[in-house]
Amino acid sequence: MTWVLKRVVLQICLIFYLFIGVLSELGNPYEILGVHRKASQQEIKQAYKQLAKRWHPDKSKSSNAEDRFIEITQAYELLSDSDRRSLYDKKGITEDDFYKRPERQSYFTQHPFDDLFVHSGAHFNFQENDIMFFHKLSITSKQYDKKIVPKSEKVPYVLFFYTDWCFPCLQSAPYFRKLVDNLEPLGIEFATVHSTREPNLSRRLNVHALPCLVLLLDGNVYVYKETITNAGKIIEFIKSKFPYKLIPRLNEENLEGFLDGWKDNRVRGLILPSKQNIKLRYLVTAYHFRPRVAFGIADSDEIHSQFQVPPDMDTILLFNENISSPMASITIKDIPTSTLHNIISSNQYLALPRLSSQNVLEGLCPCEWNKPRKRLCVVLVTDESSVHDPHRQSFMEYALKFPYNVERVRFAYIYHKKQASFINALTPNGEAIEPLLRIVVFWRRDTSLVRYEWMPAKWEIESKLNNTGAKLVESIAQLLKATESLSYEAYVTDLFDEHAIGLIKKTFTRVSHFLESVYESLGKEQILPAFSVLGTILFILAIGYLMAYLVEKEEADIKKQKANANSRNNNNNTNSSYQPELRLHDLRSEKYNGLVRLLKPGCRTVLLILDMQSRQQLIPRFHKAVWPYRKNKTLNFAYMYIERGLSWYKELLQLSLFEERELNINPRNCVGTVLVLNGHRRYFCVFHAKHKENVQRVSRNVTKLTEKDCESGAFIGFNSDESESESDPVLLQGDLLDGLPNWLDRLFEGSTQRYHINYWPEFPIK
């Protein structure tokens, strides 16, 4: 028990010491801005503005103005963020301090007895299995999004997911510690995530079991599913996830093409290893410098002999536009990562680089605050054409022989059409300058503020080159003086990124990464459900396809049967294809508005009047007579039982007469009558086998009926006599519609009589 108490007291003292150390090293943001702890956001903002104006490097002459300005800006960023300010007020630390010095977080005060628990009958070793090692590297979701993901574009990140009371996590601690010790010097960063505290991050990264290793490359997540006890497998896993052909293998055939590919504005790096396999440090280095340097590895002994490098040592050669000899080289048996980074950082630009993106501009021509330290950029404006290749070549040769300090004068060229907005901004007001093959010298005072000067003459490649070069030397020497300033000033926008990935390629990359992540996330416990779901979907699709095929086949058979039936009914029709169906409507009160009253302009309804006894004989003949007009979309076809619509028919005839007298209709004599009703213009035409149309034309557009016409225009059935006169010919019921086809022809010619009415009578409801 005494040993336990001593251990607890020791941990409490350690916690207190670390907490005091954190408070002593951190600056007080309230004191930096000169505000009290309860200051409002408005007061903090006002204090920041006043101090920023005072300590801005452009306005303050103090030697520590830049450091002071950065300190003020960081203090304002902390206090303007409510979460970070609350964290500082409570614990005296910020998230930045927590990330930079994670070993000082106070989380372990919640579990001071973690090292006292026993596993398998023995105490854990404090140096190796203590979970405090994971707490030291722990990050939050906010740190992951703001720092880890952006940094993963250049640096590979390995994340270890753990939680408290996880004995497998404790057992993995020594292996993870060795992994950190071995891979961190190669340029790989490590961090840990407390899975219980950050469940959302665990779900986002598809972590299903603990402990778990996750590799982060360029924002893409790769989950390692094996145990972390085997470092060799972990290294092979990391190697396999780097971008495809990050370091291609080269031989005598493709070596020259690789070295001559510098037109993509990248230096060429040739790796000549002592062994054929690619070391992880070279992959990490190539990944870090991939925007500026393209690496390749020699895959044959002939390349070693060509460049005369020892085969038992590793050699790195860096080439610019001159592919015959390297501009830098290093040969060591085991090249340290720091040495690699130093030599590549010093030679990551071509002899005459192109201003192809804002990052290139920031690297070649960074912003400068002090005039005595100003750095000039001498840029030749050209077109993306082989015609200007000689000008660029001569300008590059001139840059290599330039007599002044290269650190203060950087030479480059730019494409006019691709960077038109940037070039157009560097045009003096009121002056017309043709920028092609002209040289502009500028100095970046700020991210957007540029002071510049155009050289008066174009860059020549012939005999005038010496004169042009000499004048350029004199102008640059004059502009480098501290007392001399450039003539013009302009605000410019960021350069267009010429190396940006297109939308199609970006979409394809995202889809491929998504499919790969889905494939990687499938374990043994997910494979069977996945196959089950896939099989179910395929089964449903197969059943749906089969049903659609059967329905389509049945529809085809029905169409074929109808086509055959139509060909039999119409002997003159030799076309066996299916024709549109002719539909006959039964005129009732509920259909009366649609068929008569509310007809659209230009539409008409052809109505057959019949009774129950004549239905079987008249409907087939009526159907045959109107069949040729089935494709006319302005016609509707219907029939009406005289027993149902007698009152409507009587009132309709009454409205069409000039004389007001009571009609006495014999329903039997109305059978076989065909009415063509125009609902919009309120008129109708009538056909009956015994109805004779006698029209006397009075004028061009007006017609008038005689008295006899009125009597004969009373149609058929106006008298109540059941028997017809002896002078009238006898008509059989089946012959009532014999003259209908001819009458329909005259109807569409416009030669039939029209009977106008003032309104459509109501149809009886039965």
TrEMBL record:
PROSITE patterns: DNAJ_1 (PS00636), DNAJ_2 (PS50076), THIOREDOXIN_2 (PS51352). It comes from the Eukaryota. Residues 561-580 are annotated as: Disordered. Residues 564-577 have a biased composition (Low complexity). Its main location: endoplasmic reticulum. The keyword Membrane applies. Residues 28-92 form the J domain. It is found in: Endoplasmic reticulum membrane. The keyword Methyltransferase does not apply. The chain crosses the membrane at residues 527-551. Pfam families: DnaJ (PF00226), Thioredoxin (PF00085). Gene3D superfamilies: DnaJ domain, Glutaredoxin. InterPro entries: DnaJ_C16_autophagy_reg, DnaJ_domain, DnaJ_domain_CS, J_dom_sf, Thioredoxin-like_sf, Thioredoxin_domain. Residues 137-264 form the Thioredoxin domain. SUPFAM superfamilies: Chaperone J-domain, Thioredoxin-like. GO terms for biological process: autophagy. This is DnaJ homolog subfamily C member 16. Plays an important role in regulating the size of autophagosomes during the formation process. Keywords: Autophagy, Membrane, Transmembrane, Transmembrane helix. GO terms for cellular component: endoplasmic reticulum membrane. The lineage of its organism: Eukaryota, Metazoa, Ecdysozoa, Arthropoda, Hexapoda. It is a single-pass type IV membrane protein.
